[in-house]
Fold:
Amino acid sequence: MLSPELLHGLRNLSLAARQVAEGFLNGAHASRRHGAGMEFSQYRPYQPGDDLRRLDWRLAARSDRYYLRESEIDTSLTVHLLLDASASMNHRDDNGLTKLDYARLLLASLAYLATQQGDAVGLTILSPTGLRHLPPRADARQLPRLYHALETVEAAGSFPDHATLAPLTARRQRALTVCVSDLYESEAEISTLLTRLRATSGDVLLLHLLSHNELTFSYQGAVTFRDLESGQTLQIDADQQRPAYQQQLQQWLRDTAQTARRQGFDYHQLSTAEPLDGAIREFLRKRKNS
Structure:
């Protein structure tokens, strides 16, 4: 898997998403991992009218015959992607990537994967000024729409309030909801939203995104921190505060994971310094079981 900074350096979200998804699937096939969209029960000859996306072009090139891969998991889903676009997602890691940069790459890759599986994919960008919502679709034009929305999103303000979020939970539609967020909230508004979505839509996969410098507290000496959402500042000695910070962070992460799982979410922690394969594997596992 390419590193997140190399993928971001491509400056082409469509190309990066394809590189991530196909690189993962090729690696998974070589290692014989099991999971949705990665292993196939059998091949059968192509017949007119078959979906060309399931055609094994490599096998065709070697044998001059056309075969379709019949997946062990052959059902399509509705996949609803949620992006937290509050200002805290502007936090920048030591590798130069913001959380929003990483989230763009991840969600674009998941959208590409889901589309290749034949799923209807939608996207909702959560910001205080309102929801930017692309309803789930399975047509060929949906991916460019999703890429454009992700490329143009800007993180600002705090997480939207209940009134802004209300349209998301007003309708019942069976879907696999995938939320990417750093889970910085003031009154449990994110977990409240996901609880309601689980009740109205079904399965929820929560991808908790943190930066590497948050996890390791790599700062040194006197540092001034500014809250990206409230603007408040705090001056500390990083070396002196590191032990207490790391202890409190680990406790918060344990509590967050336990709470999410108690509420029925699938929870997975991510770092902006790590390749995207962990999140993709969780998505495919969840898709297989949905």
